[in-house]
Amino acid sequence: MTNRSWKTLFLLLSTLLCYSTSASGYSSPTLNEASLLLDIDPREAQSLVTAFLTQRRLIDTTEKTPSTITRDETEHKIRTPGASVEALGILAQAQSHLGHQTQAMDYIRQAKVLANKYQLIYLDIDVRLLEIKLNWLFDRNKSRARQQIARIETRLDQMKNTSQLIQRIRYKILMLQAEIASRSDENQLAEKLYKHAKDYFSSIQAVTTQIKYHIEFGKHFLSHGQYNKALSELLTAYWSALEADDGAQLAATNSLLARLFFERRVLDKALLYLSQAADFYDNYERSPVWVNIMQRMGDIYFRQGKYNLALVSYLNVLDHPVTQHSKAQFISVRINLAATYLQLYNYPLAEDYLEAIDPLLKQNDFPGLQGKAALLKAVIAYVQKQPSLAIQLGLKSEQLTEITHDHHTNLQALKLLSNAYEQQGNYKKALYYAHRHYQQNESRQQKLNQLSEDDFKQQKAFVEQTLHLEGLDRELKRQKNRYSSLKNISYSIAIISFVFFLVILRRGYIIRHQNEEIEELNNHLFTHSRSQLNNLRMLNVNLSSTLMQKRNQVYEQWYMGELIHKPLNDKLRFAMIDVPFLRNMYLQHGYSEGLKLELAFGKFLKEKLSSNARIFHFTDANLLYIENNQEQDTQPQALFDRIQTWVNEFQSSVPLNRIIRIGIADYPFPPKAHTAINEKELLDILLMATSASRDLSIKEKSSHWVYLKAIDNTPAASFASDNIREACQQAISQGLVKVHSSYNNEESIQNLLNVNETP
User: Fold this and answer.
1) I want to staple 737 with a disulfide (CB 3.0 to 4.6 A). Which of 22, 147, 185, 731 is the partner?
2) Where is the signal peptide (predicted)?
């Protein structure tokens, strides 16, 4: 494979690897850890990523193929282009968190160059989205940000890809658009975009992303005073983070819940959530979030009148390294300390803190902080009976807080101006500012009342929903009880069924075992021990029950009129086969060889039998063959030829005498007298015929057959004798029984029969 092919393959694998992990993290554990630290301690995140970039060498795919990179080298010494782009993105975010916009944009440019160089399309889009967000956070130019986002959406539409990577990017676009709309007070648009972003959860499937979504959505509602909706989203995030054991997300949620309860003036609850958040951030010494939490705790203590505890919190914030690097934080905490000392009537110390921040306020444009500082100075002037200075500073505070929409400080400034003018003796102005204070306070109270009314309506809906849920809960309990009963019944049925199943299995095993024993006994009782053909015992059982008893019963039913139609009785042909080699093979070839021959001959005959034929081992050298004879005109010669063919086809390792002697007779023997002859008498007739064929065979030295056939009108009385052989001999002499043979000399055969029957 060429270097160019390896390069293309490696870049593709790098891109897929980065984005397969980015749904829940980054392609490197180090980058994943740094990303989590961005909101907690951006300086620590910056240190981790800087070490990652400096201690690892960027792999150039033209130098190495994936197969030449060892596992140890991959894990500890190199970084892929995709991981490098991710690292630069994290550095840009860290610099933005620290307020260094120029350095952040420099890292963004490096990331874009690297992504374009290695054709990392999806990472390039990610970097451009990050660039749009950081620029917007810096200059708040929503129009430009939206135009840039629209260009990225056009680019995504042209790609015509609906993979998980594209869905993830579209989710990030929607969240950025929602944040821009929220900061621009476009509440309906923001809420619509947040809800639309929720549709992408199924494709992202990352618990961390879902928790962050609820946090951002709750922050939007909190920023716009929709406290109940904010509470719903933040509680969802709280329990999800608790279930996922995500300490960072849980701490962030606790901070927002504390802010929510602080704004709703539920100070004890706010303090509880702040304490839980502080327990997490206390592990990070340089965390700016910890500073904000401690300052918020000081604000709560201040509102509660616990000024000493407030001082402790503010002083902790003042001594923290983060405060020393943040001018706004440094000024804000000193203003809070001055306000606290004012409440403790320590005016000189309050003045010292305010004078210390005067140079910083003049050098920097912090109108909100300048308004608060001016108000505190005005309060000190008012207390010191300097109404002119108090009015001057109060007017400055009123103007600045009106610009910054700091309603709480603005209300305090109006009240101070009213008091200061009254102290000066200008009652008209005092009344004017008192009236403005009253109007703004009334307006604020109306908003609070409206908020309380909305809360009441939502509380009403919540109570109704709670009642509905209580009803559902009761129904659930009933269903659970019913389910428990059904489960117990099911378990009982299952156990009983299992027991029955075991009994059935045992019964089946016993029946199978008994059947095997019965089959073994049948084989032992009804099978010839050497040839494995059915023996004489089987012949006696089957022939007696099948040919005589049942046939007599059915025929008598027809004769007595119990059956409408004459039964279709089977027509059978019997052949007694005398096989001389079965008699002589033990003498000629020995016992062992004789056993083998007899067994092989028995198996051979079984294979030759058709489905409507049976064969029995009658005596050592005699076999009884029975087959259906529905067509009575079948010639006995055909039967003889078939049996002779079988004997001739039998393969043997030793020479055999292939001569056979066959005696043949039909059943019923008298065609119209079904009950005239029983099975023993029929066998006697066959033995007579076989004996005659044997005599012919001995005389002629060849195979012969003899067939005894009664004429159609032979009366049953002809065989009404205790000696069937004599009766048959007499019937032959009377012409009632015809003798057919392969010898073709009926007279000689009759003589043979007469001789055989002579006592």
Assistant:
1) 731
2) 1-23
Mean pLDDT of 362-389: 89
Q: Which residue spans of the chain are classified as CATH 1.25.40.10?
A: 206-283
Give the separation between CA 96 and CA 112, rounded to whole angstroms. Answer: 17
In the chain, ranges of CATH 3.30.70.270 domains? 536-757
3-class SS of residue 568 = coil
CATH number of 1-139: 1.25.40
The 3-state DSSP composition of the chain as helix, strand, coil percent (nearest 5) reads 75, 5, 20
Q: What does the block give as tokens for 343?
A: 């409440």
Q: 0.70 exceeded by the pTM?
A: no
Q: In what order do the strands lie in the sheet with 572-578?
A: 613-617, 622-628, 572-578, 661-667, 704-710, 737-741
The residue to which tokens 């000696």 are assigned: 723
Is the predicted pLDDT of residue 419 greater than 80, yes or no?
yes
Question: How far does Cα 147 stand from its chain's mean position?
Answer: 43
Q: Under a CB-based contact definition with an 8 Å cutoff, are residues 683 and 665 in contact? A: no
What pLDDT is recorded for position 550? 46
Residues 6+ apart with CB under 8 A from 133: 145, 176
**Is it the case that residue 536 has pLDDT exceeding 90?**
no
pLDDT of residue 272: 93
Residue 555, burial from CB neighbour count under 10 angstroms (0-12, 13-18, 19+): middle
Considering the domain 536-757 in this protein, what is its CATH number? 3.30.70.270
* Band of residue 545 on the pLDDT scale cut at 50, 70, 90: low
Q: Which residues contact 374 (CB under 8 A, 6 or more apart)?
A: 393, 394, 396, 397, 400
Regarding the domain with residue range 206-283, which homologous superfamily does it belong to in the CATH classification? Tetratricopeptide repeat domain (1.25.40.10)
